[in-house]
Amino acid sequence: MAQHGIKEHSHGGNIPIQTRSERQRSTSVSDFAEVSKLDEIWRYLPAEKLRGLGDLVMGEQSESGVELNLAEGISARWVDSTDAAVGTGGLPEDRVAAAAWTNASKTLLIEVPAELECAEPSFITIRGEGPEAKALHLVIRVGHHARATIVLDHVGVGVLGENVELVLDAQAQLNLVTIQEWEAGSSHISAHFAKLGRDSSLKHTVVSFGGDLVRVTPSVELSSPGAEVNMYGVYLADTGNFFEHRPFVDHIAENCVSNVAYKGALQGRGAHTVWVGDVLIRESATGTSTYELNRNLLLTDGARADSVPNLEIETGKIEGAGHASASGRFDDEQLFYLQARGINETAAKKLVVRGFLSEVIQKIEIPAIEERLVKIIEAELEKVGA
């Protein structure tokens, strides 16, 4: 069987897929090859940190390991993974997502009824259950003209393969925040699939601050006119952390908008982050407006940030499209400006890093979460006196 992501060449060799949309989608693990660095989608990943997440068989996250604190009017129930709601947001594009899909016999279905406007955020806390690989599946459905904020909070020590489906009806609004604050010894690979209805709006924020391996791959399908997605990410990697984020926006319908902005800081020898951003504007997606951005700040020697923006455009009838990425060290002019005003070097560096990351953190618009993340940043920077 040909390797996933690779097509057989007429001369007998292998060539990579030419467009992001050509990737295979399936819930069957056997449809995907073993995880290998020869496959572009796994080329950066340290396979020794998978800890069984690519295996055919893994355990299932227990219901007791998922704590719910939902706003009034939002319902939650566990359903069989054969339920009609499962798969409406999207399907796996890699082996780990397929393995998590098939090993999760139950799915947590969160429903926000039509017309409901929630002023308070809802929290779903997922606690790690030790060093054995577990699978978890969530579906979040937001009804017509409803509005909600939901936080997925991952904590403790765990090895988790996770699929999250987001389905927004017409004119629905969802602010989803997923936080990875795992302890050392944890591995987490999460695939997000979002399908947006007409004139709906999704704000999707990924926060990665802990875990040996964190890989989040959010995929958004803009298949209804007037839909908008804003995808944000913030991460702080230290020694022993490998964080990978691969957002994908698929512009299918006309007059849709997407903005992607991820910012990260790295410190400590061996800290490694990967950002691969894909945007596809199909021929049918006239009137599209899109932009993607990734910025990385390297605080110490020995840290590595890979950043790859990709933009495919199949029509010239768009409002605008662009991308940018950069990785670098402290801005000497910023430090000089602060030190010239009596701030010592250590405090000045903290202010620069905090300001750099806070630009994304403020997009979350949940004061308690923003305060918590700022405290984590301060504590991490104390480790190296930055």
UniProtKB/TrEMBL annotation:
InterPro entries: Fe-S_cluster_assembly_SufBD (IPR055346), SUF_FeS_clus_asmbl_SufBD_core (IPR000825), SUF_FeS_clus_asmbl_SufBD_sf (IPR037284), SUF_FeS_clus_asmbl_SufD (IPR011542). Residues 132-356 form the SUF system FeS cluster assembly SufBD core domain. It holds the Pfam family SUFBD_core. Residues 1-28 are annotated as: Disordered. Residues 1-11 have a biased composition (Basic and acidic residues). One of its GO terms (biological process) is iron-sulfur cluster assembly. It comes from the Bacteria. Belongs to the iron-sulfur cluster assembly SufBD family. PANTHER family: PROTEIN ABCI7, CHLOROPLASTIC. This is Fe-S cluster assembly protein SufD. It comes from Aquiluna borgnonia.
